[in-house]
Amino acid sequence: MLRTTRATLTALVTWLGSRPVAAAVLVTAGLFSGCWLIDSGSRAAAPPPQPSRAEAFPAGGTGALAPHRRDPLIRPLPPVTPVRVRIPEIKVDAPLRGLRLLPDGSLASPPRDDKNLAGWYESGTAPGAIGTAVVAGHVDTSTGPAVFYNLGALKKKDLVEIVRADGRTAVFTIDAIEVYDRGDFPSRKVYGASGRAELRVITCGGGFSEERHAYLGNVVVYAHLAKVVEAGSGSGGGSSPSSAPPSPERSSSPVSSSSPSLSSSPPREVGPPAKRTGPSRAPAPAPARSAAPKAGGRGAAAGMSPSPAAPAKSRTSGRR
């Protein structure tokens, strides 16, 4: 547990003028400035991999603050509690625990007794919703490597999957991986608003001070929402990096959610049937109708439904 002050929070809110972003920056001021000090000063025999310069944003660019081309078919999701993070390239598959400010102004960190556990800043943006979400985890502990030990080995275009409590999986594509010294952490660049759903995955990195028993910097993964895997559609995006062409865009108005293609019940007859005056004839067969994809199924366009259309068994109480 690391401390920050209310004065720091007030200054950050004034500087950025946005509660979600200011809350995320507070993670940097409180949680990452000490980088979760190692209990005994020991660490893994080999240092964790650090990102190469080729995986960073181009030199001289503004990085995350540069304007992004938004894919109109990938819509941000409603805010729902994330429950798991998966990074197939480095074999990460870990539960997520909410991190929050305590009454004394300190910020709790994930417990050290579980190496395979990550946290997300639950007072900020939920992963998949519009804004910048923050996921963090230990790089190592006194007993060896932890959940994000290999974070610095990732490459651009690798995938990060966030499983949500509504059954959906938000699949993010990595834009860059950078490492920063603790005293030169670019909060505005890391947490600046971009107008789309983005994700930052952060752990300790840079050099290690044997005297202070702490890492001297942070590894930061920048990623954006690239695909949404609906509940019941199989595993996340790791097995299919490029999604199939989406279905035609539907209106988000209430009418579209009750259209025939999404209805699971047969149409009702309107009014009494007309009396027949001629000889009785067998009714003509109804014209064949093509089967429409069920809402939230594999055929549904990613992120297009007006509300989370998860099966009843997938509804959770973790939705915010």
In short:
The protein has 320 residues and is an alpha+beta fold.
Helix-strand blueprint:
Layout: E1 2-3, H1 6-16, H2 19-32, E2 82-87, E3 92-99, E4 106-107, E5 118-121, E6 131-137, E7 140-141, E8 144-145, E9 159-164, E10 169-181, H3 187-191, E11 197-209, E12 214-229, H4 254-257
Parallel strand pairs: 3-5, 6-11
Antiparallel strand pairs: 1-4, 2-3, 2-9, 5-6, 7-8, 9-10, 10-12, 11-12
Describe this structure in words.
It is globular, with a radius of gyration of 24 Å. It has a domain at about 1-55 and about 75-235: Beta Barrel (Sortase, Chain: A). By secondary structure, it is α+β, with helices and mostly antiparallel strands. Strand 9 and strand 10 form a beta hairpin. Mean pLDDT is about 70; it is low at about 1-35, about 35-40, about 240-275 and about 285-320. It is built from four helices and twelve strands; from the N terminus they run βααβββββββββαββα. Strands 2-3-5-6-11-12-10-9 form an eight-stranded mixed β-barrel. It starts with a strand and ends in a 63-residue tail after the last helix.
